[in-house]
Amino acid sequence: MSSDKISWVEISKKAVINNIDVMRARVRPGVKIMAVVKANAYGHGLSEVASIAAAHGVDFFGVNCLDEAVRLRSMKIKTPILVLGYTPLANLKDAVSHDVSLVVYNAETVSRLQEAAAKCKKNAKIHVKIETGLNRQGVTRENLSEFLKLVRSKKNIEVEGISTHYANIEDTTEHSYARKQVENFCEAHEMFNAAGVAVKYRHTACTAAAILFDNVHFEMIRLGIGLYGLWPSKETKISAYERKISEFNLMPVMKWKTIVAQVKEVEANSCIGYGCSDFVTQASRIAVIPAGYYDGYDRKLSNSGYVIIRGRRAPVLGRICMNMFIVDVTNIEGVKSEDEVLLLGASEDDAISAETLASKIGTINYEVVTRINESLPRIVTA
Ligand SMILES: Cc1ncc(COP(=O)(O)O)c(C=O)c1O
Question: What metabolic or biological pathway is this protein involved in (predicted)?
Fold first, then answer.
């Protein structure tokens, strides 16, 4: 832990490796694994997770933006990288010069990328995103012929892949919409074949799709939440069970910790914290926890979260503040300042899962981990 940091995130190397291996075993041999490390590796730490995943032989990295790709290149990571989000026209040349592939769906991007590639005297690698039903990024079926004509006319453009993303996999156990998207994707791929545009990688599968359906793995899967040892949703777990898909031992990668800043006694009938939103009816012992909503500990955990100290649960009293909050340690023997506090993750025989925190604040596990402030140190543990 660096000296001025009082809250930190531990990343288990063993868990990252386990999760890659589990997913490798799920797909047929030869299917590539893209480690999706966008958004600071879902809050786990871009450089920390990417170093482990690169050393463990993942085939691709998926990032949101060129900045993240350049950070990986500056770490001397040679693994292919795909920018999944939007790349502004002004940055296309940098993408080519750093040998970064781009998800592309706009005609203007293709034209400007050709110019950039010609200037760099290199090929630009693109993955054409196909709109199959999410109605987010993607070339629509109506525009695909025109788009293919344009791509074919640009000699420095190499179609490295085609991709799509599912709208309704994690939220349901009824997957007819996803099946329709696969059909749409395969029809679009036929159009590439008919136009004589060869495609090296077809990729559609996020974690849930990769776990549930063999026929969507194609040449590559895009592994996000599963890389971090988290299930995409309760519905995905139920679907896997219903489909008799063998037990998946995903291991959560993250523990978020801090230390107790102060312990003190309060009298019976004392208000606790801003807005006097909590009140103790009996004489109590409270502990001040030096983390708050700035750090990513959501304010909606006011009066409802809990932390683990000395292996025991300490409930949140009152409001989560910007940089601290208060917990009740009346029933935990011997708590003192600088005792370790677990905010998220497993202790020896208890846990505060991202799912538990998510359900308390009305969100998903993805958001809980991703929103942990990037400024907190990420520490790799064995
Ligand atoms: C385009 C794309 N592919 C793959 C993923 C990874 O999905 P998951 O985290 O569910 O595996 C995401 C995540 O948001 C995404 O946006």
Answer: Amino-acid biosynthesis; D-alanine biosynthesis; D-alanine from L-alanine: step 1/1
